[in-house]
Structures are given as C-alpha cells and as structure tokens.
C-alpha cells in the first residue's frame, strides 16, 4: 500500500487521535493546548499537501483515491479553512468543559471532506460524506445548553440522515447497474449503454446526497439555522468547508455520466433555484449570521454554475476552484468578524461599528463586497470566471439569472454595510480575544493578497483537471 | 506614466487621508486640493504632449497583469478621453475646493474621510477614462459606484441612505448588464483579450445576428442606465437631491459622462456594424430623453431636481450625437461633426452642470431649502451669485459664445444632415430649456425679496474663485473652442473615417 500518498490525511488522523487522548486526561485549563496540536497537525497536512502538488494526476489505492490537481487544490483549501476555524476557536471555547475534543471533531470532519474531494469511487464517497456529517452534527450542537443550537443541529441531523440514506441507496443502485463502484468502470459501462431509468434514480439519489452537503435547494434548510445558532467558528466551518468537498465531488461524479441523461439542465435548474431562493430569503433578515447563512445558500447556486458546464470542454474546473477560494476567504472572514465581536448577530448591534472598530468594519465591508463580486476583490474574479465559462458553454441565460441574483444580493449586503457606516454607535463593542484578532488580520491580508495577486492564483489553478480526462 | 500618475496620485492621497490619523478639517481639505490640482496638472501636461495628428491612442503604457485571460494594465488616451478626463479632473478640483454644504455644522471628526472618499472617487473616475483595458474599465466603472455610495449615504441630507441604496442598486444593475456584454464581446474574439485597441482594430461580430444584438443590448443597457436615458433615469433625481452639493456636481459632471464615454468607446468603436443597425432606435430614444427631460424639468419646483432633469436633457443631446455618428450614412463629415459635438457636449455639460450643482450647494448651505418658491429678489442681496448663476444658466440653455452652444450647434448640424426630422424635433428641447432656465432665474433672483431671506449672504471668496474658474472655462470654450476641437477632431476622424 502506497501509504505515502495519504500523508496529509494520516497526519490529520494522528492529530485527531492525539487530541482525543490529550483531552481525556488534561485538566480543563490546559485544554486550549489541543488547539495548538490541531494547528500543528493541520500545518503539517498542508505542507504534505503542497508537496503533492505538481505531480502528474494519478489514482492510488486500487483506483479509489484521486491525486489530481482538483483534489489537491480542494484539499489545501479545506485544510486552510480548517486552520482558520481552529485558530478562531480557543477564545470562543475557553470556558467550555469539553474544549479539547472539539478540535478532534473538527479534524475528523475535515478528513471526511477531503475524502469527498478525493474519492474516485462511490463507496469512498459515501464514507467521506458520512464521516464529515457524523463529526459535524455534534459540532453544531456543541453549546448544548443553548436551545437554538440544538434545534439547528437537529435540523442538520435529520436532513442529513435523509440525504445520506438517499446517497447510500443511490450508490447501491449504481453498484447494481455497474457491478463496481469505481468511477472509471462506471463511466465505461455507461458509454456502452445501460438501463436509463435505474440510472436516473441512482443519479437523483446521489446528487441529492451531495446537494445536502453543498447546502443547495432542496436540501438547504439546515444552512441558515446552523449559521445562526452553531458556535460562531463552527458556523464559519460548516458554511465553507463541506461545500468545497461537495462541489468537487459533485463535479467529479457528473463527469462520468453519459450524455443522454440531460444532467446539465437539471443542475442548472437546481443552481437557479438555489441562488434565487437564498437571495430572496436573505433580503428580509435582521440577523447577520442568518443573513450570511442564506447568502451562503445563494453562493452554492453560483458554484453549481461551474458544475453545469463541467463537461462542455470549457475551463470550468479552474473557475470552480477560483470561485471556491474567493468564497472561502470572504465567508471565513465574515464569520471571523462575527466571532471576534463575541458573536453579536443582530444587525442593530452593528450600528456605528465603523466608529468603534474601524479595521474590523473595513474587513467586514471588504468581505461582503467580495461576496457580491465588486472588483477588484477576489470575489469579482471568481464570479467573472463563472460567468465567462457559462456564457462560453452556451448557458448565457444562466449567467443572466446569476447577474440578476447578484444585484438582489447587493441589497442585503449593503444594508449591513450601511448600518455600520451611517448609524450612530450604541453601547460598547466587546471583542473576544487575541486569537481571533490575529486570525482576522491574517485572513484579511490573505484576501487582499488573493485579490491583487489573482494572476498567480489563476496561474496555479489553470492546469488542474480530473485524472483520466 | 503620466496618465498613471494622474489617477494614482488621488488614490495615494485618499489612502493618506484615510489612514493617517488626526487630520484637521482645513488640513484635510488643503491636502485634497493639492492632490487634485497635481492630478489635473498631469493631465494638462499630457494634453501638451498630445499630437492631434498622431495615432489614435497616445501616452500608452502596458504592463502585463493576468496574461492567461488577456488582462493587462493598459492606459492611454485619444482626444475624446483626454478632453473628458481633463474636464473631470477640473470638476473634481472644484468640488473638493468648494465648501461642503452642511449648513454651518462642522463635519469633524470625520472631515478627512469625506475628502478621502472624494479623492478615491476621483482616482476611480479618472481611471475609467484613461484605461485601455476592458476589464479594468469595468473594475473602475464599478468602484466609482462604491465611492459615490458612501459620499451620498454618509454626507447627504433628506433620506440619504435610501437614495444611496437606490443609486447603487440601479447603477449596479447597469454594470452587470455591461459585464455580460463585455464577456460576450470578449468571447467573440479569436484570441480572447481585453485589450481595447485590439478589439477596436478587429471590430468583432460584424456579421450581426442574435449574438451581436445581445452583446450590443447588454453594453447599451449598462451604459444607458449610467447616462441616464429615459426610461432608465429614475434613480438620478433623488440621488441628486439628497447628495451633498459637491458630490452632486461630480455625479452630474463626471459620473454621467462614463455612460456616454462608454458608448463612444465600446459600442461605437468596437461594434460599429451592429450600432449602425440600431442607430436610429438609439437616436429616437435620445430624442425622447431630450424632450422628456426638458418637459419634466420645466415642471419641477425643486431647484436641484430641476437641474437634475436638465442633465437628462443634455445627455440626450450627447447620445443623439453618438447615434448620428454611428448611423448608416455616407456623409462622413456630418457624422464626424456629430461625434465631435457629442464630446464637446460632455465637456461643456460637465463644467456647466458641475457649476450649477455647486451653486445649489451654496443655496442649501445658506437656507437648507431647495423649493424655488422660497426664494426671490436675491439679485440685490447677492449680485455675484446672481451674475455667476446667470452666466452658467445661459451657457446651459445654449447661448452663443458659451460652451453649450458650440456643442449643441455641432450635434444639430450633424444630425440635420443625417436625420433631419430628429434634429427638427430635438431643437424643441432647446426652446423648453431656455424657458425653464429663464423661469428659474426669475424665481430665484428677481421680484421682491422675501423677509426670511434678509440674512442671505453673498458668496464667499472660495466660492467665487471656484465658480469663476468654471465660468472662465465655459467662456473660453465658447469663444475659442479650437484648442479643444483640434484634439477631439483627430480622434473622431479616426473613429468615423476608419470604417
């Protein structure tokens, strides 16, 4: 077994085990050291991941595990969001009695998401989805004395249980059709022709299972609740990291499907429904975290645009990854600010923030404008590439719908920006601590660097492709 | 290099004002004035180095940025861009130097931020006119919205936040249509690139068809909202009324020009064949804007709203000139005349309406009132204010010897040769404008002085200097336009004659 191919994942696993052991025996006041262990594990995993970059794409472990540019880029991005989330957490979790094991759950969840992005086999995909889901449910409900958190986690769990069951059923039917769970074998069987009804059912089930992780319609309902009520760093985590894994997994899965299945139209419809519903629902929110939750639903709709055209011979994958980078940076920054401000979430409490916390406000404004896609922020380039590939592939109507949605989204982002700048401040603005302070600045700096150095980012992402294509 | 300095200096100034703490109000203002003046000086320098008989684009600088998708930092000007950019810098300088209209309330402690936003807006606006890269054009086109949004929302009066939001949403809708059009244009090239010079040279989508029509529609929709053309003008009056005077001057003087400048730069230069097909439609819409803008302005009792609607009327003349320039006609001289006229109209309207909105700011600063019925008989009380307003109003209604006449004469002469009936109908617009400005002057300055205006003060020294400079510009263009025409003619001859 070429264990070396899994070095990043093994590092994560060892880190998680170490943290579980440490957290079981260390006294509460030392539990914050678990964050340091988690960070070290993540940084090592990132380092090993970077070492994998640049090699020719290949499959390993009997073809179930892809080591291609897409998988590695997604892995690095997932690990990066993990770093940000872990670094935001110690201040937030300080008084929690189960502080230490929190980080173990984070690492397990990250491991599942990386598996989703790298899986080249339907069984592997199921394991990845289940691992990341199972580790995420308790994270969402970590404040078990806080009723809204329990409600959010319950919703998350129930929708997740249904979606994961559907995913498994879909994979079983797929296995029945193909006689194997390997994507390459499946692709070859589909080319030769197969029962289209059974295949449609299987594809529907699998797509629904992945849509749930992506937070897209119709399995989106958990997203706003989790964003609102989960611990703030976890809200940042669950609105970003699972989407990266799920988007790549979905893109990888649909590329093996035969032409006659009309899957691009179906994904396009899901995309339109997702971005429209997310935006319309966000319009009237008065709670910033819930607003960001709905906005992240709508951003899933934009991601799906790239997946619609992934088989059309355009540069959809670099566009998808570039958009994911932009989205991850902006959304992590936005939730990082919420965390830093002690989770203050009512929009009214952001009145006059600019007068008390100018830098934090500047970061918030940049993050929100990047989510809209105002140039020259990185979000603009991400969206620009999405528009470009969809128009090039003949889906101009989808780009028009996305443009209209972008316009709608501007309204609610501007509402938040307006109160921070134009209203008089009221009350004190407490912040949570120095970990989040540093993380915030680093994330902001990275977003600015990514905006100005987009050429470099695109140059790195441009050659990526799925293995075997 | 010199053009880069022209737009980067204000940006540096903005950063300096925003992030260096403890600016006094007067210090921030002087800093703003110096930076804006330096930037204007750069453009004037560029003007002296500009050869009207030379190639279309001069002072070109190109630095690769994102070569994989054909984006680079490209700046350069032709006569049209140079004229509009220099006028913009002058209007910015005037607006920054002009006292901000807060009715005596000092805007401490955030005065430096006001000047920082002003300079930021100046940088982005000048960059729109100076860049030669389509993507950068879009970037700065959008960024100027951000600057204006904060200026209106934070320092406006009335319902500033609502107006700022409407402004941003409406014009951002236009931007997105423009973006889709730009992407469509970009994808139609053989080797996709955002280099404007390359696209102007290649003139893609010449065969027409649905795709070309959609790209043209996207571009024109975006630019028409910004211009604004009826029926897409509804954001303009409210944004003007609630914006602070200097910001209004910039909105009318500079930001609206981005729409018409864009029409010259993108559809006219890059898609001439498609534009030709729809030139008459655009001309008719422009005619509607001219007549509708004038008539609605006549009906306004609010000083600022009335001037805002005259902007719609005047931008209609510009669009008419551009439509004539794009039309299917062998009369190249007439088309060239119309395009030159449209550009002079941009410059003239920038100076004239900029000055008018600054005057509105002075009125608001003194009384906090825009209702025309509130005023009257100010001619004795404030003779300088009266004299300057009369000068600018006469320029706006097209009095010979002033800038507006030079522009409108050329537009009408060109239009008459190509679409005579459009010209005949559009002249009615001038008649109505004359009526509405004379009525405005009568209501403000003549008749008996109401009691509550007894304390109305004359313009102070700064206001007089700023308005006189703008007035001088208007007179010079009116009396000796050849320095301006020479520069513009070279560009319009190349754009029209090259087909």
What is the averaged pLDDT score of chain B? 89
Structural class of chain B: mainly alpha
Number of strands of chain B: 2
How are helices and strands ordered from N to C of chain A? HHEEHHHHHHHHHHHHHHHHH
Radius of gyration of chain A: 21 Å
List segments of chain A where confidence is low: pLDDT < 50 over at least 5 consecutive residues: none
Tell me the overall shape of chain B.
Answer: globular
Q: Label the structural class of chain A.
A: mainly alpha
| Chain oligomer state | heterodimer
**Strand portion of chain A, in percent?**
under 5%
- Low-pLDDT residue intervals, each spanning 5 or more residues of chain B: none
SSE string of chain B, helices as H and strands as E: HHEEHHHHHHHHHHHHHHHHH
Describe the strand arrangement of the main beta sheet of chain A, using strand numbers: 1-2
SS elements, strand count of chain A: 2
Largest interface: A-B, 29 and 33 residues
Tally of separate helices of chain A: 19
Number of helices of chain B: 19
Distance between the first and last residues' Cα of chain A: 25 Å
Strand content of chain B: under 5%
End-to-end Cα distance of chain B, whole Å, is: 31 Å
The percent of residues in helical segments of chain A reads: over 70%
Write up what this structure looks like.
- The complex is a heterodimer of chains A (469) and B (499).
- In chain A, 75% of the residues lie in helices and 1% in strands.
- With 469 residues, chain A is an all-alpha fold.
- Chain A has one domain (3-461).
- A two-stranded antiparallel ribbon of chain A has the order 1-2.
- In chain A, α1 (7-25) runs antiparallel to α2 (33-52).
- The radius of gyration of chain A is 21 Å and the shape is globular.
- Chain B is mostly helical and 499 residues long.
- Chain B has one domain (2-497).
- Chain B is 75% helix and 3% strand.
- The longest helix of chain B has 36 residues, at 332-367.
- The chains are: A mainly alpha (469), B mainly alpha (499).
- Chain A binds chain B through residues 369, 374-376, 380, 384, 387-388, 391-392, 396, 399-400, 403-404, 406-407, 410-411, 414-415, 418, 421-422, 454-455, 458-459, 462, and chain B through 65-69, 71, 135, 138-139, 142-143, 146, 149-150, 153-154, 160-161, 164-165, 168-169, 172-173, 176-177, 179-180, 183-184, 186-187, 214.
